[in-house]
Amino acid sequence: MLSAIDRDLWIADGPVVRFLGLFPYPTRMAVVRLRDGGLWVWSPIALDEALAEAVAALGPVRHLVSPNKLHHLYLGPWKQRFPEARLYASPGLARRRADLAFDAELTDGPDVAWAEDVDQVIFRGSFFMDDAIFFHRASRTALVADLVQRFDPRETRGWTGFLMRLDGLVGERGSTPREWRACYWNRRAGRAARNAALAWNPRRLVVAHGMGVEEGARDVLAHALAWLG
After folding, report:
1. CA–CA dist 221, 229 (Å, integer)
2. Of 44, 200, 206, 213, which sees the most CB atoms within 10 A?
3. What does the alpha-carbon distance between residue 53 and residue 50 come to, in Å, rounded to a whole number?
């Protein structure tokens, strides 16, 4: 169910999905009410009627945003439930999901429709995937999908938990998967994006997979992305 974490900002946790069929990934979405009253939905989770009604009660859904090409599983049901919403593809997603009619692809700057409320930067330079992270200006909240993962150590057990720890994804010092780091051929581009995100001076961090932070988000991001050099 939706939880308000600041004025005009909500999150909701979805079901656990299995990455590569093995690793348990909790899912999380965020909803921002823009100053025009419309809703901007980041990384939509599995949709049921209760969640749809709770979101609709906040205002009209106008923007459905995929932060990277892995966060696409539930875009179809959301678009079907809210057909007036515009659908935004992360870089590379439109080719993967040719069944969806995207209205636009995310760029390095925010769309004019949400630029006053939400900023963004795309982490480029990886063979594997570009990842867009966002910043809700009013609450100073950064929204990060896969670039920073901070799984709860109490819920990360067994051999899969052991591998996730080796990958640097568990607890307060969670970061970017090591195999993704190895795919960064252009770390200069990654550093430029990181510096832009740190310049926001975020207070809060919301991550799609794992534990966010309420204070000191800039320092957490700086540590998590220190591998960029």
Report:
1. 13
2. 44
3. 5
